[in-house]
Amino acid sequence: MPSSTVALSPAKEWLVSQTGSSAESEIGRKFDKFFGRHLAEPRRNSLAPSDLASEMLLFYTDLRNSLFQAGQTLQSSVLTYQIEKALFWLTSRKVNLPQPNEVRDYLLRYPDMTDLALSVCATVSARFGAHAQLSLEVYRDPEIEDEYLTLYLRQQDYDRNLLEAIEDICEEYEEELAERSGSLLVTTDFRPPPIENYGF
Questions:
Q1: Strands 133-141 and 146-154, how do they pair?
Q2: Fewest CB within 10 angstroms: 55, 65, 106, 170, which?
Q3: 44-77 residue pLDDT tens
Q4: Cα dihedral 174, 176, 178, 180 sign
Q5: Could you tell me the strand order of the sheet in which 133-141 lies?
Q6: pLDDT number for residue 61
Q7: Cα 124 to Cα 114: distance, rounded to the nearest angstrom
Q8: What number of other Cβ atoms are within 10 A of residue 114's Cβ?
């Protein structure tokens, strides 16, 4: 086996390990095609140095694009997994999700809202306990084309101090929310708790 092939194997294996099995065949093919032709048997290489340099530049550009695409796919998969885990956590804590696909889509577009939404839901749940039902929804304002997460707190018998308690929670998260890309509102519509929809 030519020495150049041996030397390049660790690099090839590392790239494959960083990008996942879906990119393995494509990256391996690029390595084998270029290095096998130009470096494994250098004596048979008839290209002028300038031509070889041009081919190397094209090879690395192509490889960089492949790695970028593989990285984007991996990042998207991790993000999707984190959001699905968050939705499962919410439903396991009895947070109602009337339109889970809308919440999922919002978190995919504003991923830095995921952990904040979980924290707010946990705080509200701990503060009001079993006497309240929480419902996480996406509110859309058609007049100004705005949308944001809304955590509705509903009770069978409303406490007259409820709005003050909600305001206190909003103040706790005001600074943290200002640093996020999306928005989240904690409120109530004074409706009785609806039939739960904990699935997603």
A1: antiparallel
A2: 65
A3: 445 555 665 666 667 667 767 766 666 666 567 7
A4: negative
A5: 95-96, 133-141, 146-154, 184-187
A6: 74
A7: 16
A8: 20
Identify the three-state secondary structure at position 96.
strand
Q: Which helix (H) or strand (E) holds 187?
A: strand 184-187
The rounded distance, in Å, linking the Cα atoms of 99 and 66 is: 36
CA distance 124 to 127: 5
Residue from 144, 129, 134, 143 nearest 185 by CA: 134
Amino acid at 70: A
8 A C-beta contact, residue 85 and residue 113: no
In whole angstroms, give the CA distance from residue 23 to residue 79. 19
CA 40 to chain centre: 41
Strand partners, 149: 138, 184
The tokens for 163 are 């709005």
Strands 95-96 and 133-141 turn out to be: parallel
pLDDT tens figures, 165-190: 999 999 999 999 999 999 999 999 99
> Distance (Å, rounded) from C-alpha 50 to C-alpha 63?
20
Residue 17 near residue 67, CB atoms below 8 Å: no
